[in-house]
Amino acid sequence: MSDIFQFNGAEGSGWSQPEPMIDGATDTIPSLLRRSILPRWPRASEPELVRHYTWLSHRNFGIDTGFYPLGSCTMKHNPRINERIIQLPGIDRIHPLQPEHQIQGLLSIFYEMQEMLEICAGMDQVTLQPVAGAQGEFAAIRCIQEYHSSNGESHRDKVIVPDSAHGTNPASAAMCGYEIVEIPSGEDGRLNLDALSAAVGDDTAAMMITNPSTLGIFEPEIVEAAEIVHAAGGQMYYDGANFNAILGKTDPGRMGFDAVHYNLHKTFSQPHGGGGPGSGPIGVKAHLADFLPSPLVDREAAEDDGSTGDGYRYFWRKPAKSIGKVQQWHGNAGAVVRAWAYYRRYGRELELMSEHAVLNANYLRHQIMNPDSDKHDSIHSMPLDGAPADVVKHEFTLSMMPVKETTGVTGKDVAKRLLDYGYMSPTLYFPMIVPECLMIEPTETESREVLDKFAEDFLTILSEDPEVVQTAPHNTDVRRVDEVLAARSLVLRKELDE
Predict the structure, then answer these.
(1) What percent of the chain has a predicted confidence (pLDDT) above 90?
(2) What is the pLDDT of residue 386?
(3) Are 48 and 103 in the same domain?
């Protein structure tokens, strides 16, 4: 059944509750807290309830059910050993208000994770507090804002973003009260240094950019860009959404960045989707460290009392000029421990993650754009073939404009049709600078067989009757919906019959 409230067994069925051990115990509940009428719960037996929710789970698509090439989101396999570690005694039932001496093991994990993130990004200090990438963006920009204020430069009220930026970049800066200055990309899709030079000034607070960009291409002139921003007195912020493309090869610190956020739920295998759970720690250079959200973990030498075995005492520390907390506790501890387990398992071998992510993206791009295919001219790889971006990083963008112009089939139609073939749709219509855009990220955890099959099915769709593609999906539980109506008229709760 699609509606749990359709279960309507015998009165009093579907639940069981033992009688109170003490006569009259319920009489101690204040009358104001008692229900005047019984709740209208569905009356379902346990097997009925289990079957209902199992049926619901089969209607959902996830990385465990099929290929999930959602560009910019890095929806990859999450090693199950990480789930086992997070359930170990001493980790899974810690209360955030427990005193430090009772959680030395967890604090040591937090400290080691901070250090690892500092090293791999070329930063001097990390806090694990933010629980989402966008929250990490906001926190880092707030640190930059307070840094300028402490230097008597509160007049710096503009943040520069390229037109290929993630939408959260300008949103995060705007939440801090900044005015957004968008600069256009060059013809090759890369950062335009002339446009950047024209945009910076005495009012520049920061520039926000990811590298590789959302087009999946690396910015080779990023150091020159950092020099331009720094010469104007601004700060460089690195959006770490695409960090899995460069880990072990280079780092934001070498590129000239002052602050960075990490997505533990992308790069370091913490599961995500559906709004969480995520984790977006931020790292900064030394001059911004005093402004970081609190608390972060520090340590000092101590006699080994057997609690951790490493001769240190770990404790929470608040930076001297901290912007305060951005989350009610100490960050998403479960996400941190999962990412820590991933790091401890692979260590320096994490460089292979980036290599395989880049290899898979370029392989799949080549298979789809195969010049021997009769559908080669139906799509464009962006930037256009022949531009310097012939080798992409972890993801790539395709423009479906040619096929739209010849058959009327849009990028959205192709995305919907892919659902019929058992795939999750790639990211659609982003970045907006690519017309009829599909952004595809195969990640490093997919096999060559999966990529070959996806490319074959993708090209098959382009060969199908346009009407079939334009009316897709055909075999999913929910057919094509009115997305505007669905967005404006959300149904968030069940209206019960009187």
Answers:
(1) 66
(2) 45
(3) no
Structure tokens at 270: 């913490």
If DSSP states are collapsed to H, E and C, what string results for 356-390? HHHHHHHHHHHHHCCCCCCCHHHCEEECCCCCCCC
Instruction: Decide if pLDDT at 357 tops 50.
Output: yes
Instruction: Provide the token pair at 433.
Output: 């600078």
Residue 142 in any domain: the answer is yes
Q: For residue range 25-64, what is the model confidence (pLDDT) as tens digits?
A: 667 888 888 888 877 778 888 888 889 889 888 888 888 8
Residue 221 to residues 41, 212, 243, 417, 427, Cα–Cα distance (Å): 61, 12, 17, 39, 27
Task: Give every CB contact of residue 226 below 8 A, 6+ residues apart in sequence.
Answer: 236, 255, 256, 257
Inside any domain, residue 74? no
Are 301 and 329 members of one domain? yes
The answer to whether residue 489 is domain-embedded is: no
In CATH, what number is assigned to the domain containing residue 292? 3.40.640.10
pLDDT for residue 388: 46
Cα–Cα distances in angstroms (integers) from residue 25 to residues 16, 19, 38, 471, in the given order: 18, 10, 19, 61
User: Which residue segment(s) compose the domain that 333 sits in?
Assistant: 81-349
Whether residue 180 sits in one domain with residue 114: yes
477 shares its domain with 331: no
| C-beta separation of 369 from 382 below 8 A | no
CA distance 248 to 355: 9
**DSSP label at 283?**
E
Of 369-373, 384-388, 434-438, give the lowest mean pLDDT range.
384-388
